Amino acid sequence: MSLNFEGIILAICTFLIIGVCHPLVIKTEYYFGTKPWIIFLIVGLSFCGAALFVQSLFWSALLGVAGASLLWGIGELFEQKQRVKKGWFPMNPKRKSAYEDHTE
Fold it and tell me: For 1, which DSSP code?
Protein backbone atom coordinates (compact mmCIF):
# COMPACT_ATOMS: atom_id res chain seq x y z
CA MET A 1 0.00 0.00 0.00
CA SER A 2 1.36 3.38 -1.04
CA LEU A 3 0.44 6.55 0.81
CA ASN A 4 -0.41 9.70 -1.13
CA PHE A 5 0.67 12.82 0.70
CA GLU A 6 -0.27 15.33 -2.01
CA GLY A 7 -3.67 16.08 -0.46
CA ILE A 8 -2.17 16.80 2.94
CA ILE A 9 0.61 18.90 1.42
CA LEU A 10 -1.95 20.83 -0.64
CA ALA A 11 -4.01 21.45 2.51
CA ILE A 12 -0.94 22.75 4.36
CA CYS A 13 0.01 24.98 1.41
CA THR A 14 -3.57 26.32 1.22
CA PHE A 15 -3.45 27.12 4.92
CA LEU A 16 -0.12 28.92 4.45
CA ILE A 17 -1.35 30.88 1.41
CA ILE A 18 -4.38 32.10 3.33
CA GLY A 19 -2.12 32.83 6.30
CA VAL A 20 0.14 34.97 4.11
CA CYS A 21 -2.72 36.78 2.34
CA HIS A 22 -4.30 37.97 5.59
CA PRO A 23 -1.34 40.09 6.76
CA LEU A 24 -0.61 41.03 3.13
CA VAL A 25 -4.03 42.70 2.91
CA ILE A 26 -3.57 44.45 6.26
CA LYS A 27 -0.09 45.78 5.42
CA THR A 28 -1.08 46.77 1.88
CA GLU A 29 -4.03 48.81 3.13
CA TYR A 30 -1.92 50.39 5.88
CA TYR A 31 0.88 51.55 3.58
CA PHE A 32 -0.86 52.03 0.23
CA GLY A 33 -4.62 52.11 0.83
CA THR A 34 -6.95 50.36 -1.60
CA LYS A 35 -5.15 51.53 -4.76
CA PRO A 36 -3.15 48.28 -5.23
CA TRP A 37 -6.36 46.28 -5.74
CA ILE A 38 -5.50 46.17 -9.45
CA ILE A 39 -2.26 44.31 -8.64
CA PHE A 40 -4.26 41.74 -6.67
CA LEU A 41 -6.58 41.40 -9.70
CA ILE A 42 -3.81 41.00 -12.27
CA VAL A 43 -1.77 38.52 -10.23
CA GLY A 44 -4.87 36.59 -9.10
CA LEU A 45 -6.20 36.24 -12.65
CA SER A 46 -2.72 35.33 -13.90
CA PHE A 47 -2.41 32.55 -11.32
CA CYS A 48 -5.89 31.24 -12.14
CA GLY A 49 -5.11 31.38 -15.86
CA ALA A 50 -1.79 29.61 -15.36
CA ALA A 51 -3.58 26.89 -13.40
CA LEU A 52 -5.45 25.99 -16.59
CA PHE A 53 -2.22 25.19 -18.44
CA VAL A 54 -0.17 23.38 -15.77
CA GLN A 55 -0.17 19.63 -16.31
CA SER A 56 0.41 18.62 -12.71
CA LEU A 57 -2.84 18.48 -10.76
CA PHE A 58 -1.04 19.45 -7.54
CA TRP A 59 0.60 22.60 -8.98
CA SER A 60 -2.53 23.53 -10.89
CA ALA A 61 -4.57 23.33 -7.69
CA LEU A 62 -1.95 25.32 -5.81
CA LEU A 63 -2.00 28.08 -8.45
CA GLY A 64 -5.79 28.08 -8.35
CA VAL A 65 -5.85 28.42 -4.57
CA ALA A 66 -3.28 31.24 -4.67
CA GLY A 67 -5.17 33.03 -7.45
CA ALA A 68 -8.53 32.71 -5.73
CA SER A 69 -7.03 33.92 -2.45
CA LEU A 70 -5.62 37.03 -4.14
CA LEU A 71 -8.95 37.71 -5.84
CA TRP A 72 -10.71 37.33 -2.50
CA GLY A 73 -8.12 39.75 -1.08
CA ILE A 74 -9.50 42.54 -3.28
CA GLY A 75 -12.74 42.59 -1.30
CA GLU A 76 -10.83 42.23 1.94
CA LEU A 77 -8.68 45.24 1.02
CA PHE A 78 -11.77 47.45 0.85
CA GLU A 79 -13.22 45.83 3.98
CA GLN A 80 -9.93 46.51 5.77
CA LYS A 81 -10.35 50.22 5.09
CA GLN A 82 -13.75 50.05 6.81
CA ARG A 83 -12.26 48.14 9.75
CA VAL A 84 -9.64 50.89 10.14
CA LYS A 85 -12.38 53.55 10.06
CA LYS A 86 -14.17 51.68 12.85
CA GLY A 87 -10.98 51.69 14.90
CA TRP A 88 -10.47 47.93 14.80
CA PHE A 89 -7.04 48.31 13.17
CA PRO A 90 -4.44 51.08 13.43
CA MET A 91 -4.59 53.95 10.97
CA ASN A 92 -1.49 55.05 9.11
CA PRO A 93 -1.02 58.65 10.33
CA LYS A 94 0.63 59.56 7.01
CA ARG A 95 -2.60 58.62 5.21
CA LYS A 96 -5.10 60.13 7.65
CA SER A 97 -6.92 62.04 4.88
CA ALA A 98 -7.74 58.75 3.12
CA TYR A 99 -10.10 57.83 5.95
CA GLU A 100 -12.04 61.09 6.01
CA ASP A 101 -15.56 60.69 4.70
CA HIS A 102 -16.08 62.36 1.37
CA THR A 103 -19.16 61.98 -0.75
CA GLU A 104 -19.08 58.25 -1.39
Answer: -
pLDDT tier at 104, thresholds 50, 70, 90? very low
Q: Would 42 be classed as within a structural domain?
A: yes
Q: What is the DSSP letter of 96?
A: G
Residue 99 is assigned to a structural domain of this protein: no
Count the domains in the chain. 1
User: Phi-psi region for residue 11, left (φ > 0), alpha (ψ -120 to 50) or beta?
Assistant: alpha
Is 12 among the domain residues?
Answer: yes
CB distance 70 to 44 below 8 Å: yes
Distance CA 69, CA 21 (A): 7
Q: What is the pLDDT of residues 21-50, one digit of tens each?
A: 999 999 999 999 999 999 999 999 999 999
What distance, in Å, lies between the first and last C-alpha atoms of the chain? 61
From the list 72, 87, 83, 68, the residue with the least C-alpha distance to 37 is 72
User: Is position 66 within any domain?
Assistant: yes
**Residue 54 · residue 60 · CB < 8 Å:** yes
